[in-house]
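Please, structure for the following, as tokens.
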Amino acid sequence: MREDRALKNIHWEARLYAVRISFAVLILLLMLSALILRYYDLQISRHGDFATLADNNRIQIRAVPPARGLIFDRNGVLLADNRAGFTLSVVIEKSTKIDELLNKIDRLIDLDDSELESFNRLAEQRPPYEAVPLRYKLNEKEQSILAVNQHRLEGIEVSARLIRDYPLGEQLSHVVGYTGRINQRELEKLDPRQYRGVHTMGKTGLEKFYEKTLLGEVGYERVETNARGRVMRVLERIDPVPGEALHLYLDSRIQEIAVNALGEERGAVVAIEADTGGVLALASTPSFDPNPFVTGISYADYAALTESPDRPLFDRALRGQYPPGSTMKPFFGLAALASKAISPGYEIYDPGFYQLDNDDHKYRDWKRGGHGSRIDIYKAIEQSCDTFFYTIGFMAGIDELYRYGDLFGFGRASGIDLPAEASGNMPSREWKRGTRGLAWYPGDTINVSIGQGFMLATPLQLAVATSRLATRGRVQTPRLVMTAENGEQIDGNRTNSETAGLLISEPLISEPLITEPLITEPLIIDNNIQIDSAYWDVITSAMIGVVHNVRGTASRAIKDLGYKMAGKTGTAQVVGIKQDEKYDASKMTKLQLDHALFIAFAPADNPRIAVAVIVENGEHGSSTAAPVARQVIDAYLNYYPVAATRPSPILEPAESG
């Protein structure tokens, strides 16, 4: 019995049991404390964080795109509108198999490759749960197909959106431009906050130049969604700010007349209001319909435009660079007078050619046999005598021709509120040495003196120069936009330094404009050059003779005017003619014929409009280009009649011999 008791120690076992129980209780207490601490951390300390995460699962912030600003002409005619259309979009997070979804949609409504490419590009940049447009402007049939099959197309949304529309189509495509889908290169440069929810932007024309003004400000809304991402209610909304409307100087009626006057020809017309510098018409033909570009033009349609020999996408008025030909004679005639190279009474004999000393080469006049004796500057401009301008161009020298050409805006961009303006070329000694590595030769001056050789000008530059000629040196930057919606004049994205310090007129008033009489004192048009009013009189009188005198080059094409027009015809060679050969249009193709040009301002005694016209391969400025200018000027003076007539300080043209 004693041995049994020695084998079992009850007290020791009791203590061991108590220790184990205490340890287990301690472990349980520690675990319970940790659980309580964790519960406290989750439910109290981090309650705000988890509440936010929970809200993020059911509450989303969505961008609300603004309505793009409208564009009106000077009479309130709508040129760029926003019209409601149904858009197919996809919320990628709602679809588990996006490629399979796109294949289903493709089988239903036949997606274009360009649409899929644009969708994939936008999908890479969009915030979570933002709908990505797949097809804009669904037709009724496509809407019906998608509505019937929507239960099989998880993640699609068909919603009403504003889509840009251009009511006048081809008539103003180069001026107004168009909007289009934002591409990858543009996405990298844009501020994502400004363009969140916005999938298009201005690509050309006014739409591009005034992008910031037309865009507006994006709005936002907080929405509550269910587990499938469907919006249940809107919790908060900040409305977008629509873009500002633009009101132009341009008159769509005059633009239409200019386009119709050009007809099927390739060419351009630019009309500028002399008082304001406002552009009344900026036509380039042939043109194109900008509306397909808004929602994505097909590859086939785009290829048809780019491969057309008529180049309808090319803006001839703004970017076409042509030899200005004889339209430069009034400007270079003024240069010769103002630089004292000749006097108003200077005369020459024209045998039909001009020769430099010690040079056998003959610079031919367009009129075989010449214009005869006693050819002064009046007759030389009126009859477009090349020999006279060969002579005075050489006498004045290229430095003076360049100096005055630059004053009238040749060889540099005008600063108009449109993108991608060409600068033309007003050649000089430095230009030739820098670009060709050659010295300037006397023969180069001879060619430039009649607007040929190295000289190039855009139709816009010719119109600007003609306006400066009409206003006797008033320098105004041509402008399309008169005011924004708030009534303030705006300059868009202009960075051209030429606008600094220039005279800018007030916006157009609603009453008929009464212009001030022409300046009769000598006018300073820069710090170094002063042109006496008598010289302006000489040039204007000679240009009146072009239209109204019997021997004037435009007198047969322009008749029965109820006002005085000052004009100048021009012809620019497209292919060279050898010295002993004669120009024979019957042996040439259409594309080899000379370009036809005409510049004019009217009324000559109180100028209010300046016009420049070029008809590619039109051959004769008098018969082809001058009638176009006449229609534009007639329309303007009819739509905006003068309320009072001012006395004319202009000299009457000399009688033709």
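The radius of gyration is 37 Å. Residues 60-248 form a domain with the Penicillin-binding protein 2a (Domain 2) fold (CATH 3.90.1310.10).
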